[in-house]
Amino acid sequence: MTTVAAYAAPAAKAPLERTTIERREVGAHDVLIDVKYSGICHSDIHQAREGWGEAIFPMVPGHEIAGVVTEVGPAVSRFAVGDRVGVGCMVDSCRECESCRAGQEQYCTGGGMVGTYNALDKNGEPTYGGYAEKIVVDENYVVGIPEGLGLDEAAPLLCAGITLYSPLKHWNAGPGKKVAILGMGGLGHMGVKIAHALGAEVTVLSQSLRKKDDGLKLGADHYYATSDPRTFEELAGTFDLIVSTVSVPLDLAAYLALLKSDGALVNVGAPEEPISLNLFSLISGRKTLAGSAIGGIAETQEMLDFCAEHGFGAEIELIRADQINEAYERVLASDVRYRFVIDTSTI
């Protein structure tokens, strides 16, 4: 076991504080990663505050991890010391179920994927995330970060990037398709960049117009305020695909009305409260209401290569570790453009 410094929530809703944790020894298929940067995802806050249900404490959040390999196990074949790598939302799965065999480990049905934090590994030990100096991960759940991406701007791609890339690819966003990104935050800004790079006509639907200039700069063709009732009149029946990144309950019927026939509203944001729906909103127009998680390991690598090829990472604000609690409050206040990233050298 190796002792490393980390920032952890000691209990639900408690401020994160500096502590130490134990990392396992490097096994045959493991890589030891010197964490350089760790993004702050809204889901870190949901889990640290038990918004999604009972959690495991102490909790070291962080599943947007970018770093450098410093040691490899004797059976490792995919990585070498010095490689630039990333770790996202999962560090293991059953590897045997239909989903895992199809490269969709995020939908593992053989016990579920093992989360990078707030989960139990196959030995029954809690997993600890990227708000730490180092992490040990099986090579099969590690991806390479292309040289064209800075590690700091690449870190949020391990969750925010793949969470948008996967549904945009699955629902065929591209030339000739009208795509709306609902919410202009850490997830949404990546949706704008990716949908634009895929060749779709991109519209941002945001509560207000205060981020309009940013949205247009990042690749949006249009930008509308959802607080204006005229938006829903003007855009009725417009979109092939809407990807919702918001984590608060919505009037789903209002947004389903913005779809063309056979259009899809895909949720990647996860509100803590249940949402009701009149099914006639779906029946009229043969519309689809769907959800999407992250992508599998192969698709995550594809996404990183795609972002590097198109010359973009996340828009970030770099912070020190002692600013994490302040950053959490700013995320809740939508006061970040567009992803906080922890410089883990400050832990």
UniProtKB/TrEMBL annotation:
Enzyme Commission code: 1.1.1.2
Q: Out of the domains of life, which is the source? A: Bacteria
InterPro entries assigned to the protein according to its UniProt record, in alphabetical order? ADH-like_C (IPR013149), ADH-like_N (IPR013154), ADH_Zn_CS (IPR002328), CAD-like (IPR047109), ER (IPR020843), GroES-like_sf (IPR011032), NAD(P)-bd_dom_sf (IPR036291)
What are the GO MF terms of this UniProt record? alcohol dehydrogenase (NADP+) activity; zinc ion binding
Q: Which Pfam families match?
A: ADH_N, ADH_zinc_N
EC category name = oxidoreductase
Q: Which UniProt keywords apply?
A: Metal-binding, Oxidoreductase, Zinc
Query: Which CDD domains does the UniProt entry name for this protein?
Result: CAD1 (cd05283)
**Catalytic activity from the UniProt record:** a primary alcohol + NADP(+) = an aldehyde + NADPH + H(+)
Using the record's annotation, list all stretches that form the Enoyl reductase (ER) domain: 14-342
Its needed co-factors are: Zn(2+)
Which PROSITE patterns does the entry mention?
A: ADH_ZINC
Q: Which family does it belong to?
A: Belongs to the zinc-containing alcohol dehydrogenase family.
Q: What is this protein called?
A: alcohol dehydrogenase (NADP(+))
Organism from which the protein derives: Streptomyces cadmiisoli
